[in-house]
Amino acid sequence: MPTKKRVTIALIAEEAGVSVPTVSKVINGRPEVAPETRQRVERLLHVHGYQRRVGQAEGPVGLVDLVFSEIESPWAMEIVRGAETAARDAGASVVISVLHSHAGPGRDWLERIASRRTDGVVIVASRLSAGLQRQLSARSMPFVVVDPEGEPPAGIASVGATNWNGGLAATRHLLELGHRRIGIISGPDDMLCSRARIDGYRAALETAGVPVVPELIRPGDFLVDSGRVQGDELLSLDEPPTAVFAGSDLQAFGVLEAARRRGLRVPEDLSVVGFDDLPLARSAWPPLTTVRQPLQEMAALATRMVLASGASAPEARRVELATELIVRESTAPTRS
User: Which member of 5, 6, 134, 185 has the greatest number of CB atoms within 10 A?
Assistant: First the structure.
């Protein structure tokens, strides 16, 4: 049986038609390589599954990169807390990058990280293209995706939550309180977690024999303003809902504001359920019934997966942590 040829920088250089130093520059994120050459080398590194030898990798550096598309929300702060806790327990630190884009890290970011080295990358709520996957792998950079926006590509490690179950539990809670006209304000249509929560909402209604009414399903963006605007539209209907399931706690706060502006009392006139269980949910008035998404645990697990992998890719598996309905004072039996 023929022995499998060991993948070396020299082998990659030979197949790419470039010098060994050029391949080394690509691996280490050096800028002085032509884009076409870089892409050719990265593709070969990915195809051959090249990994640095332990001696080359020089051991861990004690840094984990945490990458956000946006960070201006309490949701992101919970992710930061979880990652920092896990990193601190492992004797490492966290470096935060904010991209202001949902397209994932770009080449400039990758080259900066490769030049200073990192033990791995945790990518939060972003899309992971095949090109980015190839570039990370080519640099022997372990990575895990937290709460991916879309379906993660095959072979990618990711950590999320049971969004479908959460949507089901929130809607069932309202049904058990006697509500039948239940509105929902979702997140962006192209986000996996948002679609899963709506699917859970639909499943609960259908199981209970309650019709799914299209006018009660409203688009949102998980932020306060969309909760207020869409909540106001729901409450403006000729037959408004007696309860609203908001796709995030922030949207639920917007619904509470829309209800207050109309002189409606929560929960006497309108029941409201959120999703996330941010610390603010406990101090809202009334305290918010919500679905707990274990954000800190999700980030901590992703960080541990990255640190445990060394220079190798983390085990390709999708982990979903359980959600839990937390009943507080913003929901009550319907009066109708």
Answer: 185
Which residues in 243-265 are b (16+ Cβ under 10 Å) and which e? bbbbbbbbbbbbbbbbbeeeeee
> In whole numbers, what is the pLDDT of the chain averaged over residues?
86
Q: Is the peptide bond before 31 cis (omega within 30 degrees of 0)?
A: no
Round to whole Å and give the CA distance between 321 and 295: 9
Question: Residues 64, 92: contact at Cβ < 8 Å?
Answer: yes
Residue with tokens 């990192």: 118
Distances, alpha carbon 35 to alpha carbons 99, 223, 308, in Å:
22, 38, 32
pLDDT in tens, 81-115: 999 999 999 999 998 888 766 555 666 777 777 77
Q: The tokens of 242 are what? A: 């007696």
Q: Which residues pair with 275 in a beta bridge?
A: 291
Query: What backbone phi and psi angles, to 5 degrees, belong to 325?
Result: -75, 125
- Is the model's pLDDT at 255 over the cut of 80? yes
CB count within 10 Å of CB 316 equals: 12
